[in-house]
Specification:
With 137 residues, the chain is α+β, with helices and mostly antiparallel strands. The chain contains 3 helices and 4 strands, in the order αβββαβα. The chain has a 4-stranded mixed beta sheet, sandwiched between helices. Helix 2 crosses helix 3.
């Protein structure tokens, strides 16, 4: 799998996901998931590992672990979505299996919240008595 086409590249992409996305937190990981309307169709992922986690060596090790976890669970991320995984201090000491459980749980929770949010918006737009664009004078 080519990782470059599944990466978030710009600060604007990260900002959009963290501000508008559905958020789900676990003890050491926070997931932000947002659907986008533009191309490409593949899901994109970005990682935020703060300096509070440790020095450069530790931060890069954590990012590599997260990348490997996400790589094996890409099918759980909806198409045309952006996912930002933000780590919290102490993540460097979490065993891989526990970290994988936290990441997959956070992604699943964020996905459920996003689906619920989308269902609410579609229900509001089709509610009876709601003026539509065609009915406007």
């Amino acid at each position: 799998m080519s990782w470059s086409r599944h990466r978030l590249h710009t600060a604007q992409q990260f900002r959009t996901a963290t501000r508008r996305g559905a958020r789900a937190a676990r003890s050491h990981v926070v997931a932000h998931l947002v659907l986008r309307t533009e191309e490409p169709q593949e899901a994109r992922v970005g990682f935020v590992v703060s300096t509070k986690v440790g020095n450069s060596v530790v931060r890069h090790r954590v990012a590599r672990r997260l990348r490997e976890i996400v790589r094996s669970h890409m099918t759980e991320i909806p198409e045309r979505s952006d996912l930002v995984l933000r780590t919290l201090p102490g993540v460097q000491d979490v065993p891989f299996a526990d970290l994988e459980e936290q990441v997959t749980g956070a992604i699943a929770s964020a996905r459920r919240k996003l689906e619920k949010r989308s269902a609410q918006r579609s229900a509001e737009s089709t509610a009876p008595g709601t003026p539509t664009a065609a009915a406007a004078p």
